[in-house]
Amino acid sequence: MSFILKFQNALIGAGLGLLVFLSFSGFLENGGLSYQDQGTFFVLSFFAAVLVMMVRPLADITGAIWLRRLVLLRKGFGILSASIIAGIMVSKILAPDSTYLSMMFSFQFFSFTNYAFFAHVGDITGFILLVTSNTFSQRLLKQNWKRIQRLSYPYFYAGGIYEAFALGNAFALGALILVTLVTAFAWWQKANRREQQSVHFAPTVIA
Question: Mean pLDDT in the chain?
């Protein structure tokens, strides 16, 4: 367990480090990250998001103790994933002569052309998830905190759709299908168990 906690802290540290680096990457000598480098970071972010989405339903399905322990890492992988997206988003805002913020309130920003809608939904939900991934937000938002954290679903699917169809990433398409199937099966299994328990403990009526 101590190793998992140390790994968790390492993931969080790496995520925050990437957030700072990517946010100011536009001021690098070469003018910022290349399109190819950004693509590599996007793949890394999506891979981390896949792990976040997969580990809990797999733990519920199998009941494996080691998977239940790995559920703790969801926070670390989530911060790593969202930090990359938020960092690249901030770098676009800080870029010289940037029109990113003004475009955000335009219809074209959320156009379905070239799957831009999904890219920007992923940006915004990733930023919100990152900002609220701390104990202060939990105390401040209380019950609403869990509702906000459910944005992980549109975050994952928006990013996956953009990766799969706009960038032609076969891994993203496969991950979308796999996560959907595993999550649906875990939900069905849980609902089935509840139904069986309710039948088992139902009071017997004696005529």
Answer: 90
Is pLDDT at 207 greater than 50 in this prediction?
A: no
For position 113, what pLDDT does the model report?
85
DSSP 8-state code for residue 112: -
- Whether 66 contacts 4, CB under 8 Å: no
Is the separation of the CB atoms in 88 and 43 below 8 Å? no
Q: Among all chains, which residue has been given the structure tokens 């925050």?
A: 16
* Among candidate residues 91, 58, 73, the one with its CA nearest the CA of residue 14: 73
**In the predicted model, is pLDDT for residue 104 greater than 80?**
yes
The letter for the amino acid at 133 is S
Calpha distance 84→67 (Å, rounded): 25
* Terminal-residue alpha carbon distance, the chain: 54
Q: Is the pLDDT of residue 89 over 90?
A: yes
For residues 173 and 46, is the Cβ–Cβ distance under 8 A?
no
Question: How many Cβ atoms from other residues are within 10 Å of residue 109's Cβ?
Answer: 14
